[in-house]
Amino acid sequence: MNNYKLIKTLSENKTIGEDESTRHLSELADAKISLIKVAHVSPINFLSLRERFGQISDQYPLPIKFQQLLQTMRNIEQMYWKKRQPLIFDIKTNSIKILQIGQLLKLDKDLYEIKILNKSIELIMNDIPIENLPQFQPFQSKLPAIFESRIASIRNKLDDLVQKVHENYLRLIGEEAFLECSQEFKIYYPAFDMNLVLDISPAQLPFQIYSDEQRDQIKQILETTIKYFNQRSVSFVYYNNLIHHLLNKIPMNKEIMEKSLMFLIKIQPDFLQITNAKKEQLKSKWIVQINKLSTEQKQIESLKMYFY
Known about the structure:
Distance between the termini: 115 Å
Number of strands: 6
Number of helices: 10
Number of domains: 2
């Protein structure tokens, strides 16, 4: 087949193909087009995360210091449920817990009754009839209703403290309209720093928990720690490095130094905290984080309420 015949054959095949592919179009002209009825589609109701997954959180968030205070109260209430008798706390070994009990009494003076013994305190629960308590269950997620009610009451008081500061903050930045959203979804303004909420001054007990010497040592540790972080321009350091630096700057026994530093961490967790402290983890791997907004004056003023 020469080139002319080949081109002619390809041209004919192409024409036939086009005719076949478009043949159905001519048939549509004679066909009766029937209406296609589409079933009514109901609109999709877009549910919020709360409606789809339940309450994401039915409570406001709390500053770390208030979380720890609430957990201390829960532990005390659970211990009372277990022992069903007044609790005894040695002053020397439970100083931080006794300070926290003082904070709880500042929120509700009728929560506990305290009796001073020789070197300890006796803590008596008010308004809890022991004879009506159910059998103690160590792995129960919730305490009996009477304990949960007491904890909820303190929780509400802590929420009120944070909310008052939050409302003042919104007025200050001109975002009062956010308050409605805050109340509906139990959230705070994204830029709001909960550490702005002042700590609770403990109810003063008729004895001195920390001596004047201990107070001065803790103050010195606080000042040196802040300077150490500022000089290094960091927010995280290894625990051992911080202890080593403090021992070089302050003449103190290592054991006392560590106890004093842990006092700061436990009593002011919004200022200083260990980010990865676990029971099975060695201290050499602990990492200490500081709140870079903290100042010596602010933290010293905050500490004063614990020394009386």
